Amino acid sequence: MAEIRLVETSLRDGNQCLWAALGVDTARTLTIGPVLDRVGFKAIDFTTSTHMGVAVRYKQEDPWERIRLMAEAVPNTPLQFLSTGFRFISWETSSPEFMALAYRTLVKHGIRRFALADPMNDVAGNLAGARMAKAGGADYVVAALVYTISPIHDDAHYAERARALAASADVDALYIKDPGGLLTPLRARTLIPAIMAEIGDKPLEIHAHGTIGLAEMVYLDAPELGASVVQCASGAAADGTSNPQAERAVSNLRALGHTVPLDDDALAEVGRYFTRLAEAEGLPAGRPQAFDAAYYQHQLPGGMVGTMRRHLAEHRVSHLEGQVIAELGRVREELGWPIVMTPFAQMVLTQAVMNVTSAERYAVIPDEVVRYALGKFGRPNVPIAPNVLDRILSSPRARDLENEPGMPPVAELRRRLGGNLSDEELLLRATMPAEQVDAMRAAGPAPRHYDPDAAPAMTLIRALLARTDLAHVAIDKPGFKLELAR
Known about the structure:
Elements: E1 5-8, H1 10-19, H2 26-39, E2 43-48, H3 49-59, H4 63-73, E3 79-83, H5 96-109, E4 111-116, H6 123-135, E5 140-146, H7 155-166, E6 173-178, H8 185-199, E7 204-208, H9 215-225, E8 229-232, H10 246-255, H11 264-281, H12 302-314, H13 321-334, H14 344-357, H15 367-373, H16 386-393, H17 396-402, H18 410-417, H19 423-429, H20 434-443, H21 455-466, E9 472-477, E10 480-485
Parallel strand pairs: 1-2, 1-8, 2-3, 3-4, 4-5, 5-6, 6-7, 7-8
Antiparallel strand pairs: 9-10
Helix pairs in contact: 2-4, 2-11, 5-6, 7-8, 8-9, 13-14
């Protein structure tokens, strides 16, 4: 029997999957920080550049301050930053120089662990990111093998990439990243041993989603096959399209004879906190999912299924959902079997919708699909179908995008944006609208404490203060009295 460690994912992946990345702010993060630190997690899956952009855009909060304060609150537990290819906040591909600056700045503020998930499973891209992260001061780099199902993504595909990644001194561990929750226990029994045979003594972690009810069973089998870390969320931030629930996973692993060294009381307190937060803020709670074989037809991450249905409903073509799902598979094959994760999930879905709703297929081609065909997101796993590639590259838009300038050197960005900008502000202003960064700065420091029990009262008070027809409000109940007057 094995010793199994946990990576906690509520603040990043649970929040993203169930709460559209909007359910957690600086105060809600810092409030639970000391408890998370007591549990004994191997790491906390904390943020991505996308989440940093959300902090600025929707919360008017400084993401660098959030990282720094949380690192102070959890001195014993590494904070993880997830990087999906060479991009930072913007969808555009960043230059190596710009990414190196981003990694150095993340480390400066307290990120100690980097998870690198290239959407193409491109080994060279992952190794370049690992070198940058280590050069920037990272303590630990875990490189992803992004799981999907296609004619080319067999065990040999993953074993070959695992061997190349494990050979690098800059990669400390590998992990199977299953964003669609597609991995079955049966496939795990061939895939995990194939990977373990190539990586020597480097640890293997498992990160899967409960979208169709498979992840929890895979987590129970994985330790017998050699995995030593599973990634879980807590309370209402777990289950559904999120990751398996931590307390349940720990209980089941121990029942099978494995050792899971952590503080059970602190783990339970973490679960209660995220459940109370969801209840107070009206956020959906994840629930265990039933198996759905139809999901394999499109493999969309859970959040993208809702996006597809909303998009079709807005255009009054919900009745075309079946055709869109069938078209998704066809488009994916024609585009060289891209893995259905960000940003390719959005690309494939949008192109499929355009193909179904337009007069002919590929009559409308989104810019991101054109950039993909031009190689701006890396090399496809297999070549794009020749007739589709010709159709894309013969469009006038392809000629425009082929010649679009790439990201300028950092020195040029400083000249354009302001020579006195800090690295932190430069990274934000180079990738976000200026007015959003200005609004963040004008808002000042973020609150640092959150009480979910007080949230309903605070919501009521804010609603009352927003009204112009009230001059005096009194709230009087046993043990509580409040008067507001203009």
